[in-house]
Amino acid sequence: MWAAGAGAVLCLIYYAVIVFYSGFSTSFSWIWPAAALFLLALTGGGIYNRLHPRRCPLWVPVSALTFLGASLMILCVTEVFVFLGALSGDVSGLDYVIVLGAKVENGRISNSLEKRLQKAIEYAERNPETILILSGGQGSDEPASEASIMYEYLRYNGVPERQLVIEDRSGNTRENISFSKEIIDRMEREKDENHSRDSSKAPGPYLEVEDKPLQVGVLTSNFHVYRATQIARKAGIEEVHGLSARSDGVLFIHLCVRECAAILKDKFMGNM
Q1: For residue 115, what pLDDT is reported?
Q2: How far is Cα 157 from Cα 121, in angstroms, rounded to an integer?
Q3: I need a surface site. Which of 149, 163, 194, 244 has the fewest CB within 10 A?
Q4: Residue-wise over 19-29: b if at least 16 C-beta within 10 A, else e?
Q5: Nearest CA to 256 among 98, 90, 75, 112?
Q6: What class has domain 96-199+213-269?
């Protein structure tokens, strides 16, 4: 009972930290005062049940505790997958890396997007043959598409133009992956056509080499890696690897909780 009360206080304190740190515009931040209200109600109900043990029907505390227990179990199991995704190590020599966009605020890239782009720069320097698919459309409150802003940032920081491809139609993670896959498939078809033309012009016999599966990476914030790679597998990318960029330390707990809700939604919608 008192543990629920302490949990409510912690939820309210963390909510205050979020608001002070990044304002009221942080998405899904309402979950913390909502959780606090539920825990306070649970605490109050427990106190009332102790003071008036015969007035409260048994099904009320049983239902409340069952709901709380089931919610905590779902949260814990989901977060295990989130943390495992966040621990993904880099894989060198990938054919393509899909760099997922993030919100651009007042014409400036967000902290989250900057960390992803810094990771993309490091990877491009170590893997000069890898093509980066910059994926992100234009929101109603954004001055340009996320992909085009990402392109300008990477070019300014020395990533060669030949390594960069823009995908600027997507509005969510599923579309990021789906539209990027369309670009990858088109580029691979063009490679095959060029190879076929060159082979037909070459004199004498030539040896055919069996095609190996494309190695595709998805670069995103650490808390987002698991969902992004699962969506990529669902979209038909056979060999997919997560590339984990650091996220905001203050908001990390909130982002992981929000990601849990997003995973459940995408699972329910059949996106992963």
Answers
A1: 96
A2: 8
A3: 194
A4: eeebeeebeeb
A5: 75
A6: alpha beta
